[in-house]
Specification:
The mean pLDDT is 97. The radius of gyration is 20 Å and the shape is globular. α4 packs parallel to α5 and α13 packs parallel to α15. It is an alpha/beta fold. The strands form 2 sheets. It has a 7-stranded parallel sheet, sandwiched between helices. It has a 4-stranded mixed sheet with strand order 9-8-10-11, with helices on one face. The longest helix has 19 residues. The protein is 47% helix and 15% strand. The structure holds nicotinamide-adenine-dinucleotide (NAD) and magnesium ion. The site of magnesium ion (MG) has 4 residues, from α7.
């Protein structure tokens, strides 16, 4: 029996994780559930899944949640705040942690899980982008097991040798190819991109996801963050990580080997597949996802990404090549820009400009400490936010 903590259980990934877990009551038990502010939804989840602990963001949310749960006779303990998140991610009787908080806010509890040597199911790509080297060191130093949940990285994991150890050359890995759907604006006239609304941007053609990652998919910053994520997970330099547009989202990513073989992982675009894979690895379990119907799909299309249409992808490659604190700055500025866009404070094209200006402004640190990562993250957020008023 695996005891699982889900950080961000009310989000898109959190809900999909619970959907897989309830299919296998003989294998998984929910240790803790956490949410930032959706108290009613978390209460419903607690009553259904009976975790030992539930964590919310504030004292006020905690007292509301505790009130609802008490009324229903629930025994779940309610806590709040960052320390409580870290505690449920590192608790002795928790075996696996689904890191599904969105943004850099997920870093501390995810790092706590890595430091406690847990099996870390990583959806929260921003944590890895923000402080990749420290995070990977924490995983290695504490014997944690890192399982990628992002569909592309989970696909790559499935296409790599079982004993792969982050050395592409030693395993004959020539390229990692990340597929990208191209999002909702792949074909939209470039000169109309300035006018797109948040609702148009979050309407992803293939995946149902949280609002932040949906905007990232529309700018293709999501793919840029994934290039950086792939670098840390698989030890590949930027030159060995390619992006190819594949609008059908059937091939989730590929690995090219020295002998010319290209291995791909395919499936319907449903996050329950990578979640089930990572939860049960090395076994395979039912996820609720139907297999693909190849004749119905008919053709698979692949295209080169257009950096003119998607400048955020170029910015992310630049940040990876620069290394050090550059990805931290990129990620922080992007989080502020996307938040501002979703609240109608800036236009869609301003996202790129805000990220670029912040990257040019904030001091670069080659080998940041954890404190310096947080300082840089804060400085970049403040600077990006200061641009909104202009
Ligand atoms: P979402 O917005 O649907 O859910 C986010 C969750 O994080 C919620 O439970 C929310 O309560 C919690 N949260 C938000 N801010 C918080 C804070 N400050 N402190 C604590 N908790 C907080 O997001 P999502 O789509 O489920 O994505 C979660 C993560 O997984 C992101 O990093 C995203 O990039 C990654 N991811 C998502 C998908 C997908 O299909 N949704 C695919 C690949 C990767
Ligand atoms: Mg992805």
């Amino acid at each position: 029996m695996q005891n699982v903590t889900i950080l961000g259980s009310t989000g898109s990934i959190g809900v999909s994780t619970l959907d897989v877990i309830v299919r296998h009551p003989d294998r998984f038990r929910v240790h803790a559930l956490t949410a930032h502010s959706k108290v009613e939804e978390l209460a419903r989840q607690c009553l259904q899944h009976r975790p030992l602990v539930a964590v919310v963001g504030t004292a006020e949310a905690a007292s509301r949640l505790a009130g609802i749960l008490r009324e229903q006779g629930s025994k779940t303990i309610v806590e709040y705040g960052r320390d409580a998140l870290c505690a449920v991610a590192s608790a002795a009787d928790c075996h696996a942690v689904m890191a599904a908080i969105v943004g850099a806010a997920g870093l501390e509890p995810t790092l706590a899980a890595a430091r406690a040597g847990k099996k870390v199911l990583l959806a929260n790509k921003e944590a890895l982008v923000m402080s990749g080297s420290l995070f990977m060191d924490a995983v290695a130093a504490n014997g944690a097991v890192l399982m990628p949940i992002d569909s592309e990285h989970n696909a790559i994991f499935q296409c790599l040798p079982v004993k792969y150890d982050r050395r592409p050359d030693a395993h004959g890995v020539a390229k990692i190819i990340l597929t990208a759907s191209g999002g909702p604006f792949l074909r939209r006239a470039v000169d109309t991109l300035g006018d797109v609304t948040p609702e148009e941007a979050v309407a992803h053609p293939k995946w149902v996801m949280g609002r932040k990652i949906s905007v990232d998919s529309a700018t293709m910053m999501n793919k840029g963050l994934e290039v950086i994520e792939a670098h840390w997970l698989f030890g590949a330099p930027a030159e060995k990580i390619d992006v190819v547009i594949h609008p059908q989202s059937v091939v989730h990513s590929m690995v090219t080997y020295a002998d010319g073989s290209v291995l791909a992982q395919m499936g319907n675009p449903d996050m329950r597949t990578p979640i089930a894979h990572a939860l049960a690895f090395p076994q395979r379990i039912a996820s609720g996802v139907a297999p693909i119907d190849l004749p119905k799909i008919g053709q698979l299309v692949f295209e080169q990404p257009d950096f003119g249409r998607f400048p955020c992808l170029r910015l992310a490659y630049d940040a990876l090549s620069a290394g050090g604190s550059s990805p931290t700055i990129l990620n922080a500025a992007n989080e502020i820009a996307v938040f501002a866009f979703l609240h109608n404070r800036i236009g869609f094209l301003d996202i790129t400009e805000m990220v670029e200006r912040t990257m040019n402004k904030i001091d670069f640190i080659e080998k940041p400490t954890l404190e310096e990562y947080f300082d840089t993250d804060g400085e970049a957020r403040n600077f990006a936010a200061s641009l909104i008023q202009l």
